[in-house]
Amino acid sequence: MMHYPVMLPEVLRGLDMRAGQACVDGTFGNGGYSEAILRSAPCSVIGLDRDPNVLPRANELISEWGKRFQFIQTPFSKMGEVGIESVDAVVLDIGVSSMQLDQAARGFSFMRDGPLDMRMAQGGGPTARDAVLNLSVSELTRVFQVYGEEKRARHVANCIVSAREQGDIVTTADLADILEKALGRRGKTHPATRVFQALRIFVNDELGELYKGLCAAERILQPEGRFVVVTFHSLEDRIVKSFFRRRAGEVSGGSRYAPEVKHDGPAASFMLPQRSVTKPSKTEVSENARSRSAKLRVAVRTEAAPFDPDDRLLPNVISLTELEARL
Questions:
Q1: How many Å apart are CA 170 and CA 225, to the nearest integer?
Q2: Is 228 helix (H, G, I), strand (E, B) or coil?
Q3: Can you name the residues that pair with 271 across neighbouring β-strands?
Q4: Contact 18, 41 (CB under 8 A)
Q5: CA angle at residue 116 from 115 to 117, to 5 degrees?
Q6: Domains and CATH numbers, the chain
Q7: Which pTM was predicted?
Q8: Residue 197 pLDDT > 60
């Protein structure tokens, strides 16, 4: 199984690691970024991941790099709660990894039949199956509209509820079949794509984790510390873009519908080397199709105090806690 660290040259340029510096790789995965960072300069890396399946790969890097590499099994949203007090750089590669997509037993992909799970941490909390069997039509509609940007969200939700009244929905193939019948096959994109994305984001609270991770990085980065974030769809990038610009003192508010205005609040906690997003090269996209939607943003920490957390950047959708209370 091949694993491609997305936009690796651009990530390394954004981090610009120097001798003696420390970097948090908040989405360790298969260790592509961590290993490349360790090779780029005589620095140290702390890898984080909530997926226990990455432990063998993390142990390989520990054996190879010794004290220069450390691994902590934790969500990147908790990087400030596991003894990491101050670092020179943080990198986040947001979203599901190639390894997770390629494992049928994880239930992330409609291309491989497996249990309808989708939990990155593999234990605790509701599964995708719990969501499709217990959320109402209106709640499923909201999840599919917001997290999947599915135009026919209510129709899909109605079809799922009708199907579950006829029998259980257990596997990824079960759900994919319902979605294909509901939406039909048009063009190259599979009709299940947006709904599977929405369920994965919901089950793992990916947007909430992203915002918490951005705030945590803001707290542990030293002045002049560099923060590189790679996202893969508009929901993620919108949050990162709004966070960076607000922290740089460029805008206030945070709603996607509100006009951008100059911010008169606290001193800027980040400065932006460039306001535009960086996208993968044509060569990379031709070699790794999964990189085609990637977007990279960089921010540099200032000496100002961190901002107070403000979850107005997050969409209003039913929470995992509400679903868990019903199970």
A1: 46
A2: strand
A3: 300
A4: yes
A5: 95
A6: 8-97+206-313 (3.40.50.150), 99-204 (1.10.150.170)
A7: 0.88
A8: yes
